[in-house]
Design brief:
The protein is α/β, with parallel strands linked by helices and 209 residues long. Helices cover 69% and strands 8% of the residues. The chain has a four-stranded mixed β-sheet, with helices on one face. β3 and β4 form a beta hairpin. It is rod-shaped. 11% of the residues are buried. The C terminus is likely disordered.
């Protein structure tokens, strides 16, 4: 009876030992699994953070590029608007000046003074002793009346500025004439008179295209 009881106790002890070993092993496996899970979880979280950070950087650069393009476009638009506004003002001034000049030059005395000054301007650029003046055929009489006054004014200006006594003989070019002013709506070669221009042949044009 005692032997059987002892055997039973030994079996219980062995069973308890095995259960304890199994429990310890299960706890060890569970702890290791939990550790591996934590490591993998950390990897996934870090990977997700990296992707979010990369996406954020990409979006930030995209927005920065869009803003730069928008600023550049706004600056260019502003410049173009300023250029257009300036051009409109210049065109308005030019138009008003042209109208005013046309009204002013309807007076023959003022027209003669204007042409005389143009011829003197050209003479001061040429500084020649003989110069032919070319104009439109319709302006021959008017320009011819200005030659003597222009020659005298030229001599006066040169002497006043340099102290030198210099004269110039002016002649009206009767062989070659500048084209007439265009009719309304027409285009092409034309001359309205105005700007003095020297040439290699020392001809003086009263010309404004």
């Amino acid at each position: 009876m005692d032997a059987a009881k002892e055997t039973q106790n030994q079996i219980l002890q062995m069973t308890q030992f095995i259960l304890n070993e199994a429990k310890d092993k299960a706890e060890e496996i569970s702890a290791k699994a939990l550790q591996e899970f934590s490591v993998e979880k950390l990897k996934v979280v870090n990977s997700g953070k990296d992707k979010i950070r990369q996406e954020y950087d990409r979006k930030a650069k995209q927005i920065e590029t869009q803003n730069a393009i928008a600023r550049s476009t706004a600056i260019n638009r502003s410049r173009l608007e300023k250029i257009k506004a300036r051009q409109d003002v210049i065109s308005q001034i030019a138009g008003d000046t042209k109208v005013g000049l046309q009204k002013e030059l309807k007076d023959e005395a003022k027209m003669r003074d204007f042409i005389t000054k143009l011829i003197v301007q050209g003479l001061l650029m040429l500084l020649e002793e003989k110069v032919d003046v070319r104009c439109r055929a319709c302006d021959d009489q008017l320009v011819a009346k200005c030659l003597d006054a222009a020659a005298k004014e030229y001599t006066r200006v040169v002497e006043a500025e340099t102290g030198a006594k210099k004269t110039c003989k002016l002649s009206l070019d009767k062989a070659v004439k500048l084209p007439p002013a265009p009719a309304d709506g027409e285009h092409g070669a034309s001359c309205l008179g105005g700007v003095a221009k020297p040439t290699i042949r020392h001809l003086l044009f009263t010309e404004k295209r």
